[in-house]
Specification:
The complex is a heterotrimer. Chain A is mostly helical. Helices cover 78% and strands 0% of the residues of chain A. The longest helix of chain A has 32 residues. Chain A is globular, with a radius of gyration of 23 Å. Chain B contains 12 helices and no strands. In chain B, α11 runs antiparallel to α12. About 2% of the residues of chain B have low confidence. Chain C starts with a strand and ends with a strand. Classes of the chains: A mainly alpha, B mainly alpha, C alpha+beta. Chains in contact: A-B, B-C. Chains A and B meet through α1, α2, α4, α5 and α6 of A and α1, α2, α4, α5 and α6 of B.
């Protein structure tokens, strides 16, 4: 019996190590590739290193900076949309009971379950006809469809956990709905809103097809710039771009962790 | 007095519901509206030369009614299903492992979350770089003396079976499933482990008979999300599958972007077929869940 | 079963230190103590849910099974009542048919028949706690650990379940360690009572012993014994030196041993052999109860509680009264 348990533990450990390797190892050659032009099989390490790809990245045709710029603008717009639409809607979904709640829930989360390419193609057609949207906004609208379900799902659970009791207490103490939200619910929700925001920004930064469709290929965010290189297979360049893409993700992650730390220090 | 109080109460109730309106309107207008618009386009007759052949508003669908598209649809659905099931299993196991054994090993958590920050596009590329015949793993295998030439390394990328595609999806989706279910497992373990242990159950029994059954709706929901996403995703099959593989999103996107406005209805029709597959799966799952609840189970 | 020098640490704090206890077969041992004294931790330690840092758990013959019932029912939400009850059998590997049969029989004993196929959220709180009890009892434990099992139920339901469990235990003769904070519950079922303060057992004894020989003021205070005063205070009331008499540092007197008397009779009663004390004070509160009335009298800084059966002898609120204290009824104990 004990032997069996030990064996089980060993196989479990082995499996987890395998999974960890599967997830992590690919990052190593990625970093190496970005610093070399030539790396023939079967060398484990390239013989000559060069910074040529990074040079190209920051040249005019590399568009590393402007691509990043576009990506971040779209991500911020998407986040703003999520905050404005997502928080009040989730509050209602978590705290009120009403007829048709299930249907509303399904509609709001539907992009999670139904491939959204279809609706984005239709949306673009609509946007083209109306011709009133600036490409940043129309792309952000596309991203909003993709991200809103994730945002709602992330903060819904926290809203639910919080329940209604403290709000009732606060309302007995004379706080109105706005005060309850700002003084009680928001501080309690802050960690999950931060997590939701991080998710939204990262997902928005990663989108290729929705960005392409909504702008008709005119708004060059990082993934749109990189895709042609990836399909033509210039390893060194794509590796450099991938690492460059990490920059905003890492920055966001750091901002997120700092904010979490900052808000956690003030205990309520 | 009583009546007034009741009225204001109802007013308050409806006022509370107002918060839902913007998000709902947005989704209805853009997601559902966009889908309807797409549907409309897919039924429109060919632009360009109206007097000619395609007066039939179903022409786009008729063009799809052939065995090669049916094959593509089957392959795409199969890959999505396989990805969802594998990601679900591996994700569940990893989340359980993390929760039970290693809640103190921060680095393993970070490692498991790492792929979340990488877009699918890069994920495809990164995996291609290591799994190719001339990739890094094949070099390691050579240095370990397992293979002696490039051709001996198995073909994983651009292969016949979509192994590369599935690996790339797993690389992205296992962390997603872990992220989704880990907090629930943690909560369930802290709620139920003690009770179950006091009744004599071992950890394995607790996990199999208590944790997993209670988790089921969320776990299946997560797999459904992975399934639907994989069904409609473009980047990974575009980079990692052979051209003859016939991934529907890739074919649709080619029609949409390369063959001009005339072929747009076909592209949309292809995607709509995917939406239908996902929708039907969803209906089946919701039906099963309702049936499950009807017996009286209520877990969350 | 014997607990030897049990120590339990939790997050570097010692919760249980040097705990000693011997439980007889078929005994109900009630464990009481203020919140945070480590009762729950001790039970979890015995049940093996919390690691014991040092010490030993010994069984006199072989190894016995331990069952534990928590304060909340903690039923598995995804299993029916029957499946919940059969869970422990499933763990032991009893085949499905057999365990269903056993569990169904047990449901009848638990007076839960008809609820087999319900899910926990579909039955009442009392029924849930009953299922939780049954789920543990079906293991036929040698030692049952109860952690304030009925604390969240209303009084009639609580009394009913206590009564049921008491008779079930008397028939089946297993041991119980029963944690509760209800004094009535404790005194109605206990063979012995132990009082635990700050992680160790301060006093154990038969229920009556606890009242007659409280070990210290801490315990007397925990039992909320009425009319507890120091010897110095009593001396003031008796107006004589009590140190020559068989007394200890503190004493309490049951509320029904005190009598209201007419001030004019004081002189007559002085003639008796034992010293008799008198207190005068003002009535501040009258509390009706099912055993007569409790009258709270304020005298100087002290509050006294007097029990009286008859309504007509009760003085009115804010009246000045005199109380007679019979010396021989005072129960003395150490500080």
């Amino acid at each position: 019996m004990v032997r069996k348990i030990l064996l089980l533990r060993k196989t479990n450990n082995f499996f987890m190590i395998l999974l960890s390797l599967f997830l992590f190892l690919p990052f190593i050659p990625l970093a190496i590739w970005s610093f070399t032009k030539q790396w023939p099989w079967p060398l484990l390490m390239p013989e000559k290193m060069s910074g040529e790809s990074w040079h190209y990245l920051f040249s005019d045709s590399g568009m590393a900076i402007s691509g990043l710029n576009n990506s971040v603008i779209v991500a911020v717009l998407t986040l703003i949309g999520n905050l404005i639409l997502g928080i009040p809607a989730t509050k209602v979904l978590a705290q009120y009971e009403f007829k048709g709640k299930k249907i509303v829930f399904i509609i709001l989360l539907s992009p999670l379950f139904i491939p959204y390419t279809v609706s984005i193609m239709g949306m673009h057609d609509l946007a083209l006809r109306l011709e009133f949207l600036n490409p940043y906004i129309s792309v952000a609208l596309g991203h909003l469809i993709v991200t809103l379900p994730y945002f709602i799902a992330t903060i819904w659970f926290q809203f639910r956990l919080m329940g209604q009791k403290i709000q009732e207490a606060a309302s007995m103490l004379g706080a109105n709905a706005w005060k309850i939200f700002w003084l009680i619910e928001f501080p309690l929700l802050r960690p999950s809103i931060l997590l939701g925001s991080l998710l939204v920004m990262i997902i928005s930064l990663s989108q290729y097809l929705p960005t392409w469709i909504m702008s008709g290929g005119t708004l060059l965010t990082l993934p749109v710039i990189i895709f042609p290189y990836a399909s033509s297979g210039s390893s060194s360049l794509v590796s450099a771009y991938s690492l460059w893409f990490f920059l905003p993700v890492l920055l966001l992650l750091m901002i997120y962790l700092l904010l979490i730390k900052f808000t956690a220090r003030r205990k309520y | 007095m009583l009546r007034i109080a009741k009225n204001t109460f109802q007013m308050k109730k409806y006022k509370g519901l107002l918060g839902l309106l913007p998000a709902l309107l947005f989704m209805v207008c853009f997601f559902i509206g966009g889908t309807l618009q797409s549907l409309y386009i897919s039924f429109s007759s060919q632009t360009g030369n109206p007097p000619l052949s395609h007066h039939d508003s179903f022409w786009a669908y008729k063009e799809l009614a052939n065995s090669s598209f049916a094959h593509s649809l089957g392959v795409t659905t199969g890959i999505a299903l396989l990805t969802a099931l594998l990601a679900g299993m591996i994700g569940l196991f990893s989340a359980l492992f993390l929760a039970v054994r290693t809640y103190r090993w921060k680095w393993l958590h970070i490692l498991l979350q790492l792929p979340m920050g990488i877009p699918h596009l890069f994920a495809a590329y990164i995996l291609m770089q290591v799994f190719m015949q001339s990739g890094w793993y094949s070099r390691i295998a050579f240095h370990l003396g397992i293979i002696d030439s490039l051709e001996n390394f198995p073909i994983i990328i651009h292969d016949d079976w979509g192994v590369g595609v599935i690996l790339a999806y797993l690389w992205k989706e296992v962390p997603f499933i872990v992220l989704l279910i880990y907090p629930f497992i943690l909560k369930l373990l802290s709620d139920q482990k003690e009770t179950s242990a006091s009744l004599g159950a071992s950890l394995t029994q607790t996990v199999l008979w208590v944790i997993v059954p209670i988790l089921l709706p969320i776990w299946v929901g997560g797999m459904w999300v992975v399934f639907a996403f994989t069904l409609g995703a473009y980047e990974i099959p575009a980079l990692l599958a052979r051209t003859s593989f016939g991934s529907v999103p890739v074919m649709a996107w080619q029609e949409y972007s390369q063959f001009g406005l005339d072929r747009q209805p076909i592209a949309i029709a292809m995607n709509l077929m995917l939406a239908v597959v996902s929708f039907i799966t969803g209906i089946i799952l919701i039906y099963l869940q309702l049936k499950w609840y009807k017996q009286g189970r209520r877990v969350w | 079963m014997h607990l030897k020098q049990i120590h339990i640490h939790y997050q570097e704090a010692n919760i249980i230190t040097g705990f000693e206890l011997h439980i007889q077969p078929g005994e109900i041992f009630v464990l009481m103590g203020p919140s945070g004294s480590g009762k729950t931790t001790l039970l979890k330690g015995i049940a093996g849910l919390v690691p014991i840092a040092s010490g030993e758990l010994c069984w006199e013959n072989g190894i016995g099974t331990v069952g534990m019932v928590f304060q909340e029912p903690r039923l598995f939400p995804h299993l029916t009542v029957l499946e919940n009850i059969a869970f422990a059998l499933r763990v032991k590997g009893v085949p499905r048919k057999e365990r269903t049969e056993q569990a169904s029989q047990f449901l009848k004993i638990m007076q839960l028949d008809g609820l087999e196929d319900r899910y926990p959220h579909q039955i009442s709180g009392g029924q849930q706690q009953r299922v939780s009890l049954g789920r543990t009892l079906i293991q036929k434990p040698d030692l049952l650990l109860l952690d304030e099992p009925f604390a969240s139920l209303d009084t009639p339901l609580r009394l009913e379940l206590i009564d049921w469990l008491y008779h079930f235990q008397r028939e089946n003769r297993f041991s119980i360690i029963w944690v509760t904070h209800f004094l009535d519950e404790a005194f109605s079922v206990a063979d012995r009572i132990g009082i635990m303060i700050a992680g160790s057992l301060q006093q154990t004894g038969r229920p009556a012993e606890l009242y007659q020989k409280p070990f210290s003021e801490k315990i007397a205070a925990f039992l909320s014994l009425p009319n507890r005063f120091t010897r110095e205070q009593w001396q003031k009331y008796f107006q004589c030196d009590l140190t020559s008499l068989p007394t200890k540092e503190r004493g309490w007197i049951p509320a029904n041993s005190l009598k209201f008397i007419d001030k004019r009779l004081i002189l007559e009663t002085r003639k008796e052999e034992n010293p008799i004390g008198f207190i005068s004070g003002i009535v501040t509160k009258i509390i009706p109860g099912n055993g007569g009335f409790s009258v709270i009298v304020k005298s100087g800084d002290c509050l006294l509680e007097i029990n009286s059966m008859e309504w007509n002898t009760i003085p009115g609120l804010n009246k000045e009264v005199t109380i007679k204290i019979p010396f021989e009824r005072i129960i003395w104990y150490h500080q």
